[in-house]
Amino acid sequence: MPIVFDQVSYSYDEKREKTRKRGIVARLRSGKRSGDQGEEPREQPAWGSTAQQEWALRNVSFTLGDGEFLGLCGHTGSGKSTLIQHMNGLLTPTEGRVIANGADLSDKKAAQRCRADIGVVFQYPEHQLFAETVLADVSFGPRNLGLSEEEATERSFEALRAVELDADAVADKSPFELSGGQQRRVALAGVIAMRPSVLVLDEPAAGLDPQARDEMLNLVARLHREGMAILMASHNMDDLARLSDRILVLNQGSVFMLGTPDEVFSRGDELRSIGLDAPFAQNVAEALRTRGVALDRELYDIEGLAAALAKRYRARCHGQAAEPQAQMRAADEGRSDGATHA
Ligand SMILES: Nc1ncnc2c1ncn2[C@@H]1O[C@H](COP(=O)(O)OP(=O)(O)OP(=O)(O)O)[C@@H](O)[C@H]1O
Ligand SMILES: [Mg+2]
């Protein structure tokens, strides 16, 4: 299902203000005044004065298309996790709308309906594992959907296989006996067991060792190839360049860039101006270009750059080998010309 962000702005201040007002109403109802029982009167929040408003998101518009892989990046505090929580209505916009499958997710019922279809995997999801066995954890969501024990178990085994765990071997184990990478895959299985068509991942590879990182990202790439739409937040530009159809760059809560990896990473200077960077191979290509190596302005990964440099090197070797031969030929021709003229 496509998910549309239409001029979405979000302020945590307003949320705090609502909570504060609810507190005041509750206190008035109970007959207590602020300051009773040693409670300090609270400072007036900044909300209400435009200049002081702090927007975690500001006028964010984009569409996550069916089956699309949208990468999300931005400096720390730029709003990635806040945006992610809007994807299935956990947070609702202060201004603007999020529309999923035609429904406005500010409507609680619409948000609840969409939650099976839009799976959100938060940062460090393994911290939320809670059940005694892997199977109990993964089948929690399907059982909540009202599925029978048998169906929930079947889906859970399918999800464990989908995240490339040996389902028979791990199902009855405690999740806490597993490695960090495996625990994270169990958490992902819990979301996949809902059979979502959209998967939203907040830094899925953060904190994993290199092998578990690769396994996790290969897994996400495979889920995408099999048809899931993916929105993935990451600080790693190489991963985003390799996996994304398009990349959304956030800066201080606003859309700074939205385009294909090619379009985004050809603007390395602008990315650096907001504390981000282009992928490693792209930076090397750019440095070589400024030193006179004629490389096309395309998006390189390490293999692509190595292949382009090897091609240039071969062409140069051929050129050098061809040059003396050409000179000799010219000299021969000169001699023969000379001989003729002589
Ligand atoms: N629960 C909260 N209450 C108040 N402000 C918050 C809350 N969560 C985030 N913020 C603020 O909202 C802004 C966006 O934060 P967010 O966590 O969405 O950024 P991020 O891009 O995910 O950062 P990171 O890369 O560090 O994960 C920041 O200014 C942050 O301090
Ligand atoms: Mg975050």
Overview of this protein structure:
- This protein is α/β, with parallel strands linked by helices and 342 residues long.
- The protein has two domains: 3-12 and 61-287, Rossmann fold; 301-342.
- The chain is 46% helix and 16% strand.
- The chain has 14 helices and ten strands.
- It has helices at 12-29, 80-86, 108-114, 134-138, 140-144, 149-162, 167-170, 180-192, 210-225, 237-243, 261-265, 268-273, 280-290, 302-341; strands at 3-10, 57-64, 69-74, 95-100, 103-104, 118-121, 198-202, 229-233, 246-251, 254-259.
- The strands form two sheets. Strands 6-7-8-3-9-10 form a six-stranded mixed β-sheet, with helices on both faces.
- Strand 7, helix 9 (210-225) and strand 8 form a beta-alpha-beta unit.
- It is globular and about 90 Å long.
- Adenosine-5'-triphosphate binds next to helix 2.
